[in-house]
């Protein structure tokens, strides 16, 4: 039938998933979306980003807006993950029904990560509610079993490790079936460790990064982390060399604010000269 792919999904643009891209060797680049702007999501994809993380934890973004942001990403062939505000199985299911390729779970521990995997998978592997009339299934798939198999294969659950409890359990988190990426959050982790707004150049955070990367390598999995809003290319390259596979360049609002401040300083320097 015209417009349907072999798995029954309609004409929505489907390029290689983020999981597929993990099979290569190059670093994967993305950015968090705090603005809830489809225009900025479209710009990320047009620039060649591999992924965006739509934020629902710290931002007032609601599900209807998330759907529009996903459409903008789909139009550019860019993967969308959603950072949910908490371990909320119905919200995780609804987010995935909209077409997210995965979720990011804040304040991850092994038990929270295990529960998130269950919430993200259909029975019998999990507890996700099954409905064919959803965006991720093409609104009515010709073959539900093919859709369910594709969902099981491509859906990512990404624990966000941002406190010492998560670091202490990092081997157990990576060992979980259904966990292929851990997002190591330096800002929250630094605050939790009493280090202020430090990054991985701080010796104690550097040790944590080495611990997490070593665990990822033992389990054949991957580490994501944040570079920062100032687009420090040397710092980004250092993280890549140390084993960070997915580089998140902060949030769109932070990048915009940093650029605005540079422009404002230029104007102020001209005024004082």
TrEMBL record:
<comment type="similarity">
    <text>Belongs to the HpcH/HpaI aldolase family.</text>
</comment>
<dbReference type="InterPro" id="IPR050251">
    <property type="entry name" value="HpcH-HpaI_aldolase"/>
</dbReference>
<dbReference type="InterPro" id="IPR015813">
    <property type="entry name" value="Pyrv/PenolPyrv_kinase-like_dom"/>
</dbReference>
<feature type="domain" description="HpcH/HpaI aldolase/citrate lyase">
    <location>
        <begin position="34"/>
        <end position="257"/>
    </location>
</feature>
<dbReference type="InterPro" id="IPR005000">
    <property type="entry name" value="Aldolase/citrate-lyase_domain"/>
</dbReference>
<dbReference type="Pfam" id="PF03328">
    <property type="entry name" value="HpcH_HpaI"/>
</dbReference>
<dbReference type="GO" id="GO:0046872">
    <property type="term" value="F:metal ion binding"/>
</dbReference>
<keyword id="KW-0456">Lyase</keyword>
<dbReference type="GO" id="GO:0005737">
    <property type="term" value="C:cytoplasm"/>
</dbReference>
<feature type="region of interest" description="Disordered">
    <location>
        <begin position="1"/>
        <end position="23"/>
    </location>
</feature>
<dbReference type="GO" id="GO:0016832">
    <property type="term" value="F:aldehyde-lyase activity"/>
</dbReference>
<dbReference type="InterPro" id="IPR040442">
    <property type="entry name" value="Pyrv_kinase-like_dom_sf"/>
</dbReference>
<keyword id="KW-0479">Metal-binding</keyword>
<protein>
    <submittedName>
        <fullName>Siderophore biosynthesis protein SbnG</fullName>
    </submittedName>
</protein>
């Amino acid at each position: 039938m015209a417009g349907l792919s072999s798995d029954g999904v309609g004409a929505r643009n489907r390029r290689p998933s983020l999981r597929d891209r993990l099979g290569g060797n190059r670093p994967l680049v993305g950015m968090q979306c705090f603005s809830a702007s489809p225009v900025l999501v479209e710009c990320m994809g047009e620039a060649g980003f591999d992924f965006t993380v739509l934020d629902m934890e710290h931002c007032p973004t609601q599900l209807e807006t998330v759907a529009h942001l996903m459409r903008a990403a789909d139009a550019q062939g860019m993967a969308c993950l959603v950072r949910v505000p908490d371990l909320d199985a119905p919200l995780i299911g609804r987010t995935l029904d909209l077409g997210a390729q995965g979720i990011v779970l804040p304040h991850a521990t092994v038990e929270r990560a295990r529960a998130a995997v269950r919430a993200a998978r259909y029975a019998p592997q999990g507890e996700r509610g099954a409905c064919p009339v959803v965006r991720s299934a093409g609104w009515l798939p010709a073959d539900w079993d093919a859709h369910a198999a594709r969902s099981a294969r491509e859906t990512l659950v990404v624990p966000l490790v941002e406190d010492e409890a998560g670091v202490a359990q990092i081997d157990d988190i990576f060992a979980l079936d259904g966990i292929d990426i851990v997002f190591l959050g330096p800002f929250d982790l630094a605050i939790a460790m009493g280090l202020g707004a430090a990054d991985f150049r701080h010796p104690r955070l550097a040790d944590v990064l080495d611990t997490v990367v070593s665990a990822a390598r033992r389990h054949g999995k991957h580490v994501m982390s944040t570079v920062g809003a100032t687009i420090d290319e040397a710092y980004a390259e250092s993280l890549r060399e140390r084993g960070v596979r997915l580089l998140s360049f902060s949030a769109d609002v932070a990048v915009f604010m940093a650029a605005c401040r540079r422009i404002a300083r230029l104007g102020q320097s001209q005024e004082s000269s």
